[in-house]
Amino acid sequence: MFIKKLLKKIDTLARREISFGKILIGTVLITILTVASVIVARMIIVPSFTAANNDYRYQWHRVANQQEWKDFKVKYQGSNYCNNCHNEQYKKITESLHSKIQCENCHGAAIDHPDNPQRLAIDKSRELCLRCHSYLAYRPLEYKELEKKTIRLKMIKPDEHFPDENMQCISCHDPHKADFK
Ligand code: HEC
Ligand code: HEC
Ligand code: HEC
Ligand code: HEC
Predict the structure, then answer these.
(1) Using CA atoms, how far apart are residues 144 and 161, in angstroms rounded to an integer?
(2) Helix (H, G, I), strand (E, B), or coil: what is residue 145?
(3) Atom of ligand 2 nearest to the CA of 170
(4) Residue 178 pLDDT exceeds 90
């Protein structure tokens, strides 16, 4: 019904002669309305932004993003925390070549441990160690640390270094000593 009526109206309008002036005013009005509605929509949809110390060159960010980061849950504790309860492993590793490696690098995030989970995972796979110790032809074996110390990485070739499927790296090496058992 409504569509029929509308079509009829358009038809009679089309038959009537509409002056150029009216069309022009109509066009201008529609343009103004469109621009105005876009501006209003933008004010509602686009979030507000801010910058640190009112210096817009740096850290230009969404205001709501501050709260989002405050709500973001930290996952890692850092090795010092583990020292409270696992002193034996902590002492061993800090005196070893693995001293710079965080416990959680191998055992996973521990923010709520020992409540949840009660025990952290113990990954005994070769893959755990090969992540860092696998020889890669394109990676240099020596790094200069701040031009002072040279770090030598001892890499093994996984398919040559005791590649027995059932042989874990920790069958022979102690992960906390970075040496033999
Ligand atoms: C407040 C004391 C406490 C702190 C701090 C703590 N743990 Fe534990 N952890 C425990 C307890 C208790 C267990 C369970 C031991 C058990 O049941 O034999 C455990 C178990 C583990 C296990 C499993 C041991 C096993 O034999 O199955 C690992 C691995 C572990 N913790 C690593 C860590 C690491 C890494 C950190 C630091 C990020 C850490 N823990 C911090 C108390 C702690
Ligand atoms: C390079 C990887 C690696 C790092 C770093 C590491 N662990 Fe482990 N951790 C292991 C592996 C692998 C085992 C299993 C050893 C085994 O069964 O012989 C293990 C076992 C353990 C256990 C079970 C008891 C034991 O000694 O076997 C605890 C507790 C533990 N780690 C705590 C820690 C803490 C605390 C740190 C940091 C101070 C740490 N680990 C750092 C790989 C690692
Ligand atoms: C996050 C990286 C990382 C992981 C994972 C890791 N290592 Fe290491 N490892 C190192 C670094 C770094 C060193 C010290 C530099 C070096 O001597 O190669 C080292 C040193 C060692 C050394 C002594 C090499 C030497 O110079 O005599 C042994 C053995 C070793 N790791 C065994 C293991 C074993 C076994 C595992 C698995 C349980 C493991 N590593 C996991 C990074 C890693
Ligand atoms: C059967 C025992 C055994 C197993 C299993 C084993 N290794 Fe070894 N690893 C050795 C011996 C022995 C050496 C020293 C002689 C050599 O370089 O081959 C060594 C040396 C290393 C070194 C020092 C390399 C160097 O240039 O001095 C690293 C790093 C290492 N192993 C990592 C690993 C990793 C990672 C795994 C598991 C993928 C692993 N090992 C499995 C016995 C073992």
Answers:
(1) 27
(2) strand
(3) 18
(4) yes
CA of 128 to the centre of ligand 2 (A): 12
Closest CA to 104 of 124, 82, 125: 82
| Predicted confidence (pLDDT) per residue in 134-174, tens digit | 999 998 888 777 777 787 778 999 999 999 888 899 999 99
- Which atom belonging to ligand 4 lies closest to the Cα atom of 155? 29
Distance separating alpha carbons of residues 176 and 88, to the nearest angstrom: 10
| Dist. CA 117 → ligand 1 center (Å) | 9
Burial 65-100 (b: 16+ CB within 10 A, else e): eeeeeeeeeeeebebebbeeebeebbebbeebebee
By percentage, how much of the chain surpasses pLDDT 90?
66
